[in-house]
């Protein structure tokens, strides 16, 4: 069954709350883009602060709104607020007509792969892509009867709950590995076990950053193109892997990765690191990543990746970057990064534990992928009138 299509601007226009009731001016929820998890819309950090501390580029919202991030739409940050607050103008305060559009249905639609893919295509190529609101408001959303919208939203929420439980298990595995690292090696900031300390440069055979301007080489198949979204905190994230027809150039050769290379984020989200595995060998990195090829006699790749992803490393990165307008690391910052150097035998023990955990995590990821496929399939069918 197909549903009538209605323009977003007609059923969920941008209408900020004009007359907020502020009972406690010292305790106002203030929301910005960095506080929202991609995909889920989960609030990572719910900050309540004095109203006097709020910036001028803000608007009020309440629990009737849906907040849509118009900046970098591929991040898929859509919020279903549960109370009144102030959001930065990166968010559009959509106010669904309650007689026509269920706001939970709207949230699931805006988070759907179909919509995210479509809106991302509208802004492709921009350094800081921002949705054209004219295009956004003209977009037509399928609009079944209100009760059907609520049924669809409830079904998708149940499927999403399964997906989130798998994610929580994966997060617990990450936390376990962080705990093991601290137990074996201690905090990198205080070095309580008194390990030898040296500059990372003494442990490197090769250091480079990735290729710029390779969008023209994108293809459906070919060499894997590793971007910053493929590197997490001491792990690879391969859900959004891109491919390129790599040119036969010195730059392509320079940016080609090998097994056991360590990748490090050097722009924006510092502290992401991962080790290149066989499935990524011979791929290439983009300009937001650095490639570190180690002297294996001094550092074990998986140990270094865990160290670079630690809170202690992030403090070092921020200290090196304190004068910059935008977060970023240069080669000198990386070369002078201080690492502690436990015996290789102990580093190898950590790598063994890491590998065992990741093998079990692979099985969990298969289940997680199944939950993701179920959710995506239900979402696609729901908004095309097939459920």
UniProtKB/TrEMBL annotation:
<keyword id="KW-0680">Restriction system</keyword>
<feature type="domain" description="Type I restriction modification DNA specificity">
    <location>
        <begin position="78"/>
        <end position="170"/>
    </location>
</feature>
<dbReference type="GO" id="GO:0009307">
    <property type="term" value="P:DNA restriction-modification system"/>
</dbReference>
<dbReference type="Pfam" id="PF01420">
    <property type="entry name" value="Methylase_S"/>
</dbReference>
<dbReference type="InterPro" id="IPR052021">
    <property type="entry name" value="Type-I_RS_S_subunit"/>
</dbReference>
<dbReference type="InterPro" id="IPR000055">
    <property type="entry name" value="Restrct_endonuc_typeI_TRD"/>
</dbReference>
<dbReference type="InterPro" id="IPR044946">
    <property type="entry name" value="Restrct_endonuc_typeI_TRD_sf"/>
</dbReference>
<keyword id="KW-0238">DNA-binding</keyword>
<dbReference type="GO" id="GO:0003677">
    <property type="term" value="F:DNA binding"/>
</dbReference>
<feature type="domain" description="Type I restriction modification DNA specificity">
    <location>
        <begin position="192"/>
        <end position="355"/>
    </location>
</feature>
<protein>
    <submittedName>
        <fullName>Type I restriction enzyme, S subunit</fullName>
    </submittedName>
</protein>
<comment type="similarity">
    <text>Belongs to the type-I restriction system S methylase family.</text>
</comment>
